[in-house]
Amino acid sequence: MENQHYTLKNALLETGFEYEGNDVIKTKTALHCIEVENGKIKHIKPNDPNSQGVDAKGGLVLPAFKDMHAHLDKMLFGLPWQAVSAKRKSVKDMIAYEQQLIPEWLKTSVERTEKMIDFLHSYGTHFIRSHFNVDPTSGLASLHHLEQALQHKQKTVGAELVAFPQHGIYYTQTEPLLKEVAKMDAVDFIGGVDPYSIDGSVEKPMELIVQLALDHHKGIDIHLHERGESGIKTIEFLINKAIENPQLKGKTYVSHAFALGNLSSSETERMAERLAHAGVGIVSSVPFRGTIMPIPTLRKHGVEVLIGNDNIQDHWSTFGSGNMLQKAHLIAELYGYSTEWELSRALAFATRYVLPLSDDGKQQWPKAGDDANMVIVASSCSAEAVSRIAPVTSLIHQGNIVF
């Protein structure tokens, strides 16, 4: 549906918490009419079931979901099913495999990226941070194909893009290409991957990444799978650079950061404090196969923790569901967030911290003037939506009704 002026009626909104002593025992809700105009929420008023408009049918309206770590350019989605091969054990094995297959994947990547966006839409996602390969095999084709797909879907999805030297910066001589894409307005972040194990040095590739980000006013979002000393050294390097260059604060992220899952409690606390002080965030796909990330400790210290699906159907993994509400559920289950209040707070991992109620139960979303980015789910409240992974029945992006 084209963006227009309409009213969403019979829309269930959260209005506050019900307490027993100091404990939240229930979430209060009420039906409302939400007026939408020019992509914004214009007005919220008590429900009038007889009014003209789009009928939410009593569904719970929540902030639309954000997937903050995806690879839209090289999913195998839309190709025949293929499980992960046991033959490819290392990142360098994967690089060799990608060098062989990328030319074939690129032939259909625009169409398949659009199908992947539709798939993410079906679970309520309206915004995606997507990495795209920058390497001698892909050249700039991965970026250009991704831009085409996003252009075709511009009315239904928002995105920010990370230039990702998947094959190493120096291991495959990607430096010239990375310098070229860093100048482009379409690129929001400079990426990187395992500098020590791929490029043989923490400092050399990381110095380039940081300098490109500073020179071209970009953010940083690097993949860091290294679990030992080199992983911690890389995180410390970024922390120090963000402290030295305040313009990087709030724009610098480490994806995966598995090394944080192997520290002692005191070391984890220290790193969380430093990350928060430097404004360096962590992006996680919530791994649990042998590594439980210290998300509660990071959040306790104020570190921004973003969540994404990462792999959905590709040659790295096939376990990403595409469902951000399922990711919030997984976090709640892993870390024991089981009360009404805790479950309602866990929704933040799916929405990038936009929540209907504040921590003390005051209604804070939606408000007049907010962007009209909403999902409607079959649930009585956000706590139940997280716990039961509620089905999404409608998605609205910038006022446009996607379905």
UniProtKB/TrEMBL annotation:
It comes from Pedobacter albus. The lineage of its organism: Bacteria, Pseudomonadati, Bacteroidota, Sphingobacteriia, Sphingobacteriales. This is Amidohydrolase. Pfam families: Amidohydro_3. Residues 213-403 form the Amidohydrolase domain. It comes from the Bacteria. InterPro entries: Amidohydro_3, Metal-dep_hydrolase_composite, Metal_Hydrolase, Metallo-hydrolase_Enzymes.
